[in-house]
Amino acid sequence: MTPTNHNIENRPFAAVTGASSGIGLELATELAKRGYDLIIVSARPGIADAGRDFEQLGALVQSVQADLARPEGVTKFYEAIMATGRPLDVLVLNAGVGVGGDFALETDLNAELNVINLNVTSTVHLAKLALKDMVTRGKGRLLFTASVASVAPGPFEAVYAASKAFVFSFAEALRNELKDKGVTVTALMPGATETNFFHRAGMDDTKIGQSEKDDPAEVAKEGIDALLDGKDRVVAGSFKNKVMATAGRMMPTVAAEMHRKQAEPHTQAESQEQETADVK
C-alpha cells in the first residue's frame, strides 16, 4: 500500500543509488521502514523488483534504471528526481563496484576505469547537482558509502581501495564546508559484507571472498542511524572492522599487508609460497 497524494507533502523523500541489491537495497529498505518515500537507481533490471518490495513497506517509490558510470546516467537520474517536484531530504550515494587482482598483470583497465567512473566520478557529479538545492533550502542529509578499505592501501584491490579513500576524504571535506549550512554529511564505512560484491569483483578465490561476512541489513541500520543522528562517520559491522579502521590510520603499511593476505588470490599466494620453498 502506497501513501495517497494527500499526505505526500508530510513524508520525507530520499534518493538511493545502487539500491537493487546488497547494502544499497538494505539502506533503501531501512529508509522505507522509517517513513521515507524513495527514488532509487541502479544499472541492473532488478531495480524495478526492489521498488515493488519497498512499496510493500508503505513507501511511494520511483525506480530508475540508469548506468551512473556514464554522465548521461547521472543526468537521467537527477532529472527524474527534479521531475517529482519534491525537495530531497536525504541523498544516499552508495553505488559502487570493485575489481580484484594483480593490477600490473591481471586486471582489466576498462573494468578499473569503470570503478573510478562509478565510485568517484558519479559520486562527485550527483553530489554537485543535489547539494545546491539542499544548501538553498538550508536542509538536507547526505550519506556516502565509503569503506574500511578507505583508510589504508588495498593490495589486490588497489583501484577500489583508492576510490573509497577518495569518497571518504570527499565526504569529510564536504561535511566541514557545509557545517553552517543546515546540511549534514555522514560516511558509512562497512567492512566485508555478505553481498555479491566479491563475486562481481572476481574475488571468489580469496580469503576474504570465502570468509564469513557482516549482515548487510545490520550495516544499513547502523548507517541510517548515524545519518539521521547527523554523525560524521560510522564504522559498521563487526568489531574487527573498527580494529582495521584504527590500524589503517595509525599503521598503514601494516594494514596494507593485512589487506594483502585477505585479498590475494589463493592461486597466486600458493605460487609464491612454492617459489620460496624452491629457493630454500
What do these coordinates show?
It is a single chain. 51% of the residues lie in helices and 14% in strands. By secondary structure, it is of the alpha/beta class. Mean pLDDT is 87; it is low at 1-6 and 269-280. The protein contains eleven helices and seven strands. It has a seven-stranded parallel sheet, sandwiched between helices. It has a single domain (5-279), classed as Rossmann fold (3-Layer(aba) Sandwich). Helix 1 packs across helix 8 (216-228). Helix 5 (158-177) links the parallel strand 5 (140-145) and strand 6 (183-190).
Give the SSE layout.
Layout: E1 13-17, H1 22-33, E2 37-42, H2 47-55, E3 61-65, H3 71-83, E4 90-93, H4 109-137, E5 140-145, H5 158-177, E6 183-190, H6 197-200, H7 207-210, H8 216-228, E7 233-236, H9 239-250, H10 252-263, H11 266-279
Parallel strand pairs: 1-2, 1-4, 2-3, 4-5, 5-6, 6-7
Helix pairs in contact: 1-2, 1-8, 3-4, 4-5, 9-10
